[in-house]
Amino acid sequence: RLRAATPRLRLAKLDGDEYRGSKRLVELGPGAAHRLGMADGDLVEFPCADGPSLLAWVRIDSGVAADTCRVGASGLAILGLAPGDDVELRRACVSDSLAPRKRGEG
Questions:
Q1: Phi and psi torsions of 13, nearest 5°
Q2: Is the CB of residue 66 less than 8 Å from the CB of residue 34?
Q3: Contact 87, 8 (CB under 8 A)
């Protein structure tokens, strides 16, 4: 029942760059981002019950359908999923010790 209440998105393959520098990207449409409370640049995770979660950074793209997220080929392979599969996406929990620091901070 809890799983049924968890927002799910349909996977699509991200064509083009799947990284921005060293950061893996996931593309969301504005509607999905708003519904999930996510913004461009947010760190998110695809939780995995039988292995480590896949982390990615959000890139908002108005060309992505409201019920869809786009992930690159390597991300799909790591998840063991294919375009058209449903997936959970949530904000990643980052401890303060792992959060990026601003210049001049400790």
A1: -80, 130
A2: no
A3: yes
Q: Residue 100 — very low, low, confident or very high, per pLDDT cuts 50/70/90?
A: low
Q: Indicate yes or no: pTM above 0.90.
A: no
Which residue is it, tokens 């890139």? 59
Mean per-residue pLDDT of the chain: 87
Q: Tell me, what DSSP letter sits at residue 74?
A: H
Tell me the per-residue pLDDT of 18-33, one tens digit each, with 9 for 90 and over. Answer: 999 999 999 999 999 9
Q: What angle do CA 105, 58, 75 make, to 5 degrees?
A: 110
46 vs 3, higher pLDDT: 46
Q: Rounded to whole angstroms, what are the CA distances from 96 to 38, 44, 58, 76?
A: 19, 16, 20, 29
Contact of 68 with 32, CB cutoff 8 Å: yes
